[in-house]
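Quick one:
INPUT:
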């Protein structure tokens, strides 16, 4: 993302204000985990490319958690 901000950074800011928010991150570069493992922060990461079924499954899992 522009300016050196990552999806992890934004997710952390959102969760600091609203911890009940459910977040799914997507990335075309899942091997680049410079900001750590998303699961350790309670976040889910969906790797691109993904199918519609994969997106639906992960959204359902996150909403049910």
């Amino acid at each position: 993302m522009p300016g050196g901000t990552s999806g992890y950074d934004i997710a952390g800011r959102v969760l600091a204000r609203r911890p009940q928010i459910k977040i799914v991150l997507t990335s075309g570069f899942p091997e680049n985990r410079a900001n750590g493992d998303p699961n350790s922060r309670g976040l889910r990461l969906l790797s691109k490319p993904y199918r519609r079924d994969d997106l639906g499954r992960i959204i359902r899992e996150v909403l049910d958690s």
